[in-house]
Design brief:
Layout: H1 5-15, E1 22-24, H2 31-44, E2 46-51, H3 59-70, E3 73-78, E4 81-85
Parallel strand pairs: 1-2
Antiparallel strand pairs: 2-4, 3-4
């Protein structure tokens, strides 16, 4: 899934007010993590994730791995937090 620059900018502005809904810990990205992220994307389309200090991956690696498994697009990666987006085809909540 590819986003244009304007779409990514609009999503970044929406991310500013979001709290992280997914936390990745010392076990890294597990099947449970992928399932939780999938459910959150179905409900919200745009989620913010946070990496604990003990996580074995860098934030960029975790973002890319999750996006690949979920068919999502990375929005931004700042510090130990990153945001991802996947459009809900049945009931889109974010319209460009």
């Amino acid at each position: 899934m590819d986003l244009t620059g304007k779409q990514r900018a609009a999503l970044r502005s929406l991310c500013n007010t979001l709290q992280p809904v997914l936390y990745i810990g010392k076990d890294g990205i597990t099947e449970a993590t992928v399932k939780e992220a999938y459910d959150a994307l179905e409900a919200r389309e745009l989620i913010k994730c946070s990496l604990n200090e003990s996580a074995p991956l860098s934030p960029r690696e975790a973002c890319d791995a999750l996006c690949e498994k979920l068919g999502a697009a990375p929005v931004q990666c700042i510090g130990r937090k990153f945001s991802i987006y996947r459009r809900n085809e049945k009931e889109p909540k974010i319209v460009f």
